[in-house]
Amino acid sequence: MTRRTRGDTQEAGTKDPFLVEVGKRVRAIRTQLKLTQAQAAEAANVPQATLFQTEAGVQNLQLKTLVKLAKGLGTSVRDLMPVPVEVAEAEKPPLPPPQTLDEVLERLEASSRETARLSQLAVFLRSLPQQTG
């Protein structure tokens, strides 16, 4: 088994947004329960350092550890996991149909702005040098 170094989870001083979000959720639930890190770690049967690193957004948890944390905090694994943007968007209820001409025009304008933004993004991405390998 290879030993992990801090660079495995934190590259060039940046944190993985997914791990940061999991850490925020763990901390929010723990503080809502008014538990210290030591108490929560004991309840979850994990080392306090694991809980500390998780809340700091640098711990890439094993699934078994995530389950232990969820049980120790009296919640579900799903509650500790961030919802991907695609899922959140898919779960949003559809907009009701516009009732007035003003509403139609507002939606058209918003759609045009979004199209222009995506077009600018595509132009920018196309201008980047192609990576090989």
Describe the structure.
Helix content is 63%, strand content 3%. The model is unreliable at 1-12 (pLDDT under 50). A hairpin with a 2-residue loop joins strand 1 (10-11) and strand 2. A two-stranded antiparallel ribbon has the order 1-2. With 133 residues, it is mostly helical. The chain has eight helices and two strands, in the order αββααααααα. Helix 3 (37-44) crosses helix 5 (63-72). It is elongated, with a radius of gyration of 21 Å.
Summarize the structure.
This protein has 133 residues and is mainly alpha-helical.
Radius of gyration: 21 Å
Biggest sheet character: 2 strands, antiparallel
The assigned structural class equals: mainly alpha
Widest sheet: strand ordering: 1-2
Helical amount among residues, as a percent range?
55-70%
Number of strands: 2
- Name the helix and strand elements from N-terminus to C-terminus, one letter apiece: HEEHHHHHHH
Span between termini: 28 Å
Residue windows where pLDDT falls under 50 for at least 5 positions: 1-12
Q: DSSP strand (E) fraction? A: under 5%
* Shape descriptor: elongated
Total helical segments: 8
What is the overall pLDDT average? 84
Which structural traits does this protein have?
mainly alpha, disordered N terminus, 133 residues, two-stranded antiparallel ribbon, single chain, elongated
